User: Fold these one by one.
Assistant:
Number 1:
Amino acid sequence: MHFNSVSTLKTALEQKRISSLELTQLFLNRIQKYDRQVNSYITVTAEKAISSAKLADARRAKGDTAPLLGMPIAQKDIFCTDGVRTSCASRMLDNFIAPYDATLVQKTQAAGMVMLGKTNMDEFAMGSSNETSFYGAVQNPFDIERVPGGSSGGSAAAVAAGLAPIATGTDTGGSIRQPAALCNLTGLKPTYGRISRFGMIAFASSLDQGGPMGRTAEDCALLMNVISGFDERDSTSVNEAVPDFTAHLNAPLKGLKIGLPKEFFTDALNPEMAKLIHDAAKVLEKEGAILKEISLAKSALSVPAYYILASAECSSNLSRFDGVRYGHRAENPKDLLELYCASRAEGFGKEVKRRIMMGTYALSTGYYDAYYVKAQQIRRLIFNDFNNAFSEVDVILGPTTPEIAFKKGEKAADPITMYLSDIYTIAANLAGIPALSMPGGFLQNLPIGVQLMAPIFQEAKLLNIAHRYQQNTDWHTRTPKHFAE
Amino acid sequence: MALTAEDVKKIALLARIKTDDATIPALVTELSKMVTLVETISQEDTHGIDPLSHPLDLELRLREDNITEQPDREKLQQLAPQTESGLYLVPAVIE
């Protein structure tokens, strides 16, 4: 049962073959049994989960038919949860009990979903391997010597190991899609502004976006229906009608134009991986789609532009952590400056400090135009690239990552090689468009991800394509043997 | 571009992050690598290109200047390392 999709579990709950309490207990038991090996949760909220499950069962008994009523979910520990520690995987917030719920959390609660706990992640979402967490690295359930990806690595590993049926993630440069790819899940980064960022701890505000991570496209669609929508408490939230994301999952793909960017299929991509990506495109071609080579000429500039914009925005966002109002405070500072500097030096990990310092440098007097403004101009060029591409094709298909899950420690020594893990995912964040990763096969017994990108607000199209693909393939049903029992 | 130890010390102070002499050399190397990476964009001609700040090119919304919720001071201050009579305590700023 633990590897069932949310849509299957939903039917079981509706037909009263299982109660929410039983289902919740099943996952809590598995967390207790397995999570010492995976380290996918920072905080397990067992008591809270049991009372929410009882409440959901009571709602159902009274005739409530909310679609995800009683469904367990794991929340990335970047979303504020009232009365529950919200650490962002940082020592800085190790003692932080959020005083309110993020809008996304509120929405899942109102829908009757049951939070199992808060998942591990790279500290402040800065990383691609989940090795920068203050609470230790997360293991990839398909090979515990390897990373699950990041920054939403705990969410990915929890679902992959059957320790949650679905989870939330956030994606600033690939943090939903890359771990989804490395853990054989479907993960969707929605359009910027589609899902409220209120109560989601900010990393790079012009790029951050929350989204679902599940076993199937259908599961992601079900969760999207719950978490999407305008929020006046988030000034960047977009007031755009929210469709029923499950309504057109089965729409035929006949005549769909799919672009394959030639810049995504160079020597940087593992050739065996390239073959699997092409195989996935052929499955969609058989379904009636038309494949076409396209060009995203400026895509090579997305990594450097991103590391200016994201670092600059993080340096200002993280200036709020000062050891005064909340979070870690150094002991016995001699003056106010020492209080700030020592609290931040002790509270932040290495990667976070590097990025804050990079951003501080980029924003400092005399450098602003050469770095930040220049990167915003590059951002426009990348945005234009996509606009041109979408005048020729409906969606874009390519790899999610350049390689399979790497070994723990392999890239930790050199931050730059780690940054290049996101070469195919960053452009979608810069352009604000929705992008999805879906399971597309295995290399050396490790999963690989196929990425799809669409014009703004066309998440339903991506979910439709991924769903049709999943009707014709069974990669997404493969689960790690070690966690079968 | 290679940064110097002095550059890094200055950036660390601006960023309000305490460094010690032992950690500076590694930071110099790592930050120099990052700067080299990001500087590759300087070769791209962006003359006349409008900077893009919001990916959907939208203006941020404004709202009426009304009080919509009252903060619960006690609840918020429970999170603070040190408070007294509803105030946040820090080391003396004025002698």
Number 2:
Amino acid sequence: MTDAATLEISGVVSGYGGVKALAGVSITAKAATITAVLGANGAGKTTLLRTISGFVRARQGRIVLDGVNLARRHPEDIARAGVAHVPEGQGVITELTVEENLRLGGLWRARGDRAASLADAYQRFPLLAERRRRPASTLSGGERQLLVIARALMARPRVLLLDEPSLGLAPLMVAQVMDLVGGLRNEGGLTVLLVEQNARSALAIADHGVVLNLGKVVASAEARALAADLALRRHYLGF
Amino acid sequence: MQEFLQFTLSGVSFGMIYAAIGLSLVLIWRGTRILNYAQGAMAMFTTYIAYTVIIHTGNYWEGFFTALAAGMVLGAVIERTVIRPVEAKPPLNAVIVTIGMLIFLEGLAGIIYGGQFKSFPPAFSITSLHAGSVPLGVSRNDVFTALSVLAAAIVLAVVFNYTPVGLRLRATAFNAAVARLLGIRVGRVLTLGWAIAGLVGALAGVLVTPSTFLYPNSMDQIFVLGFTAAVIGGLDSPAGAIVGGLILGVLLNYVGGYLGSDLVSLFGLGVLVLILMVRPSGLFSTRTTRQV
């Protein structure tokens, strides 16, 4: 798809008002790998993604993609630099059709690139092609999750930030979404930062895992090693 | 029967003007959730600009198109300068800012042009058309009025539904945060929305002013009726604003024709109050609740 890119987050401090949600977080998401970001509610996982995509301002630290520091840039510029953020709760615009949602993902790109991406999306997601003219509100939860991932891919991103993609999905659908994410890394060379409550299924596909607690990285290791660490699992991951 | 036909046809012509004001309010409401109380005053001001151009050049159309261009510029400038800072603030801030803008524009018009009534020329003849020997109650100019608002509405519908710019405008209206995540420059899109609304409002101004005279408050009543048209349509729906304007225009013309013209304003306000009490989400809105 594109050249693989490494996302390097170092010493990032950010938060809302007086609350420091991230207290100096450093994570390296290597090119063409999946990094699972785990932790309890309130650990700072979502804030981490929102800080990377520019919705929450990084007070300190650097977020470097391909040698370019993205920290403190506007969200729309960060998106154009190749970071696609799929927010929790999906963000399908239900008033628009499936195809309009998809088109939206690549609107800032050149016309020819947009058409090519749309054709790719329909090839990868035949289900969306079938429903292209329907309002997005008619899709099920799982179909919406596929739609927002497909929409993020319309921008031909280099880094994909996924926030709780399995939330509220049936087990079969969770497996399908995880398969898809794994495929994007393997075939597409996409660098993925995957935030999940569902640590078990996230670690199953991830290369690397990071555990956040109260805004700090408390563990960072190969996914297999994390999954095998019983004490850590009991303490932070609950499985 | 002949009276009824006349009242209906001229009601359609007036209704299209309310529809245009209503449409401009809907465009801004959808994009920014702000009710622009200055919309009428903006249209008044651009009509003064048209008046000045017509006086100097003697050419109606130069004035007409200057007003439309001025409406776009005025809309964009107001959004960038006074609306942008209150967009993320509580709704009351925006209400006060747009009311302030209304007072400012009417005051400024008074200072520049004076308070006296000026007559503003129509585009075409205002004598009634006839079908055989039966007067229809509408003039060539009324037909032009209705058709130009209709044309503007059709162009907007096509742009909104079938172009990338329209998709940006709709996406921003429905979910600005998601639009930003997808790389859309939401600030520019909002400015564009205000510019388009300014243009549609300016169109209403030059179309209605031949029948009201031009003075700093000349658009006040039209604004209230345009607002009523938008409320009938649910404030969220461009098509609803058009239909609302038509319903209101025809209804008020019956009231004025059969019951007396003194009752028109009262009846218009009555419709507004009734809709807000009985069906505040409008007749065409898909949403069930709304805070105003």
